[in-house]
Amino acid sequence: MVEVFTAVEVADVRFPTSRELDGSDAMNPEPDYSATYVTVRTSAGAEGFGLAFTVGRGNEVQTAAVEALAPLVVGRPVAETLADLGGLSARLTGDGQLRWLGPHKGVIHMAAGAVLNAVWDLYARREGKPVWALLADMTPEQLVALVDFRYLTDALTPDEALAILRAAEPGRAERRRELLAHGYPAYTTTPGWLGYTDEKLVRLAEEAVAEGFGQIKLKVGTDLAADVRRLRLARAAVGPGVRIGVDANQAWGVSQAIDWMAELAPYDPYWIEEPTSPDDVLGHAAIRRAVAPVRVATGEHCQNQVVFKQLLQAAAIDILQLDAARVAGVNENVAILLLAAKFGVPVCPHAGGVGLCEMVQHLAMFDYVAVSGSTEDRVIEYVDHLHQHFTDPVRLRAGRYLAPTAPGLSAEMHPASVADHRYPDGPVWSNPA
Amino acid sequence: MVEVFTAVEVADVRFPTSRELDGSDAMNPEPDYSATYVTVRTSAGAEGFGLAFTVGRGNEVQTAAVEALAPLVVGRPVAETLADLGGLSARLTGDGQLRWLGPHKGVIHMAAGAVLNAVWDLYARREGKPVWALLADMTPEQLVALVDFRYLTDALTPDEALAILRAAEPGRAERRRELLAHGYPAYTTTPGWLGYTDEKLVRLAEEAVAEGFGQIKLKVGTDLAADVRRLRLARAAVGPGVRIGVDANQAWGVSQAIDWMAELAPYDPYWIEEPTSPDDVLGHAAIRRAVAPVRVATGEHCQNQVVFKQLLQAAAIDILQLDAARVAGVNENVAILLLAAKFGVPVCPHAGGVGLCEMVQHLAMFDYVAVSGSTEDRVIEYVDHLHQHFTDPVRLRAGRYLAPTAPGLSAEMHPASVADHRYPDGPVWSNPA
Predict the structure, then answer these.
(1) Of A213, A235, B1, B29, whose CB is crowded by the most CB atoms within 10 A?
(2) Do the record's keywords include Magnesium (chains A, B) (predicted)?
(3) pLDDT single digits (tens) B12-54
């Protein structure tokens, strides 16, 4: 009997984070961090786990989108699928009817990412490797076959991608040892949520430095005077040697972003993140020209590789913040890492949310071992909540992510966490005592 | 008792168009044209109708997105809402949790459009006017208040928008008479579906010219030799004086688009529509520079006003093809018309689908009366199917849309059509004889 996929199951899981204002920012004042949690199963009893991240209401729409994609996976032979994950990605993102809902953006694209990532998790478990190592063991040809080049070749051809990967081959083994010994640098967003008091901000900023972080991040964009005050307090708390990113979460228009950042500049912000609409390539380019030497960073809401391509072509960003769950999974993120390497822009992944730290660390570590070959000016975001719900949570030491060693993508949640937080019937929601 | 909104109902309505290959193109080979059909109701018994268009599978995801937005409308006072439709648009597109699913793109944004358009329909019925006339009777200040300028001001400020609208005020009455007397020019896509035989293409192209159309359109992008043959046949059938648009429906990368169009150029295509990813502003700009004097057109998949803004800023398009149901309803399309007027780019709306002709004619006619003041090089797409399902179907005469006179947005369907085509339980689907 040929092993086939037998199920793509999905659960609507929500955490009531709005009760504490964890995660509050200029555009998401009261998020309930949520996961559209996907389990793929095979006829041989194998499992894989992936998820899409949302902030509460609408997680049921995301769930419906995963259900719409399930028939494209169920019934397919497993070995054949795992041998051609580029083909699976094309099928999930190119269906002649579902494609209309995007294409390649929003709910349907995040659903494709969740399903693809669950299949990658299953694949890595089967190979007995964490996903970062699975990727780092692939040949340049295998990696290039994961990518959909249809809309990329004006910026990156398959041959150029091969050349990037081949150039990084000689150092793979040494960097892998380095990674396993010392981990990958992180920064923390924990101190800077907009809903926190000044006292909490200062205390958490001091704690972050004491823990070894070389960079923290503050949310800004709602009240200029408060932003100036909070950034001044944070700068005083961490001293001149620690980088402080600021993050507007899309609150501004182009000229407003430029004016606002002029007021914050005296406190030496390292980057401005999401200054305006994530769709505005030309707007980011204009802001970057105006706010230098402050760097411009974006990516968590960047819908797909075509927009990342243009952000790089237009010299619109200094830092590329890929997200494990916004685009179509590992495949599209391999493409984005290759684009960033081609243009020499460092990748500092977005994380936090639910399981985003767990998943995205694999991509950054793969980038270090087999693509860019560098951790210079590269940091993975870290936020210290909700990790306890995962079976293989991230491990940090002295401000660095330690490389995961368990097989898979680290996206599996404890069954009890899923059951407790299932919306609307789990006890956290049906009986919020 | 203050009148309030009491319901936002939604129906999953699908037409089995794939059985005849009507609507077949390079990326949508077998569409089942579908509507996420929205009815808003008030405590005084008033109704309004709107819809999102999809091509089959996934219409249930679109339906779930409308349901997610319903609580933002139900319970609100009607008069207050109609007096501030800019506020309603901001609420539907800016919800602190639902916004994450876009923002401003894909399923959640089309859902906002469907709900907003249903409220506009209700408003216009109440005022006893078709929507085009309702808009054309508003003051420049009222029209500007409909628009969300947050991400637009680097290209269009509220003052510039006011100036455009004021400049068009003197001619409104005369153009309205002209419109009511002579209608608005159309072009037809009916001959050119990819699934049609050469004989059917030639016959339908000849019929289109005989009916008075000055422009037809052909689908291209799957097979170069076939495209050359079909365009040659179409050119021979219509003669040199009739414009032929070609439409690749996103099939190509940038250099592929340029190469393919070089082969079609001898047959004098008027425009190339959707040559590449709808997200690729810079790609469209590169293609436009290379294929001139063939014009570049796009818009039916353009997700929001921020992308239209950039297409105009980058001089990436010659023709802007707004769509009534892709963006957030009448409000965002007013913004897009103002952007197009600012940059002097003609708007030739995308239509076809289910009810898109019915709705979008109102926007083009409003543009003529009160924004651009011109029909030069402007045509509304026309496709001759599914109109019989609407209570106020479009009327064409001699290749022109006649202005609708019934109150509303013309989006109401016959109850029997909805009942017959409801998915999956309507008789067309449950018993497809």
Answers:
(1) A213
(2) yes
(3) 999 999 887 677 777 777 899 999 999 999 999 999 999 999 9
The answer to whether residue B159 neighbours chain A at the CB level (below 8 Å) is: no
Q: How many Å apart are CA B204 and CA B198, to the nearest integer?
A: 10
Predicted confidence at residue B229, as pLDDT, reads 97
Residues B322, B365: Cα–Cα separation, whole Å: 13
Could you say which DSSP state residue A369 is in?
Answer: I
pLDDT in tens, B286-341: 999 999 999 999 999 999 999 999 999 999 999 999 999 999 999 999 999 999 99
The secondary structure of A320-345 as a DSSP string is E---TTTSSHHHHHHHHHHHHHHHTP
Residue A16 φ then ψ, to 5°: -80, 55
* pLDDT tens figures, A184-220: 999 999 998 888 999 999 999 999 999 999 999 999 9
pLDDT at B20: 75
Distance between CA atoms of residues A102 and A303, nearest Å? 10
Say if B70 is an interface residue toward chain A (CB within 8 Å): no
CA–CA dist B152, B158 (Å, integer): 9
Q: Which residues pair with B47 in a beta bridge?
A: B41
Options A104, A350, A362, A389, the catalytic residue:
A350
pLDDT value for A433: 65
Residue B257 in contact with residue B296, Cβ under 8 Å?
Answer: no
- Asked if the ipTM is above 0.95, the reply is yes
The Cα A417–Cα A404 span in angstroms is 21
Q: How many C-alpha atoms does B337 have within 13 Å on its Cβ side?
A: 36
Residues of chain A positioned with their CB less than 8 A from the CB of B27: 94, 96, 99, 103
- Among B217, B219, B362, B389, the active-site one is B219
Q: Is the pLDDT of residue A138 over 70?
A: yes
What domains are there in chain A, each with its CATH number? 168-417 (3.20.20.120)
A169 SS3 class: coil
Report the DSSP beta bridge partners of residue A54: A34
pLDDT value of residue B1: 87
How distant, in Å, are the alpha carbons of A30, A65, B320, B364, B406 from that of B335? 29, 30, 13, 13, 25
Other C-beta atoms within 10 Å of B76: how many? 16
- Please provide the size of chain A in residues: 433
Sign of the dihedral defined by the CA atoms of residues A336, A341, A342, A346, in that order: positive
Helices (H) and strands (E) in chain B, counts: 17, 12
**DSSP helix/strand/coil, B319:** strand
Rg of chain A on CA atoms, in Å: 21
* Residues 6 or more apart in contact with residue B287 via CB below 8 angstroms: B254, B257, B258, B261, B272, B275, B276, B296
Residue B433 has pLDDT above 70, yes or no: no
CB count in 10 Å sphere of residue A93: 26
Tell me the mean pLDDT in the region A49-78: 98
pLDDT digit string, tens, across residues A217-255: 999 999 999 999 999 999 999 999 999 999 999 999 999
Inter-CA distances, B160 with A251, A255, B13, B167, Å: 22, 16, 41, 11
Contact A100 B54 (CB under 8 A): yes
Q: Does A29 touch chain B (CB under 8 A)?
A: yes
Which pairs count as long-range contacts for A122-129, CB under 8 Å and 24+ apart, including other chains?
A122/A40, A122/A42, A122/A46, A122/A47, A122/A48, A122/A82, A123/A48, A123/A82, A123/A85, A124/A407, A124/A408, A124/A409, A125/A46, A125/A47, A125/A48, A125/A407, A125/A408, A126/A46, A126/A82, A127/A407, A128/A407, A129/A407
pLDDT above 80: residue A70: yes
A432 band by pLDDT with thresholds 50, 70 and 90: confident
- Interface contact flag, A310 B30, Cβ < 8 Å: no
Task: Determine contact, residues B132/B404, Cβ cutoff 8 Å.
Answer: yes
Q: In this complex, is the C-beta atom of B276 within 8 Å of any C-beta atom belonging to chain A? A: yes
Residue B141: alpha-carbon gap to chain centroid: 25
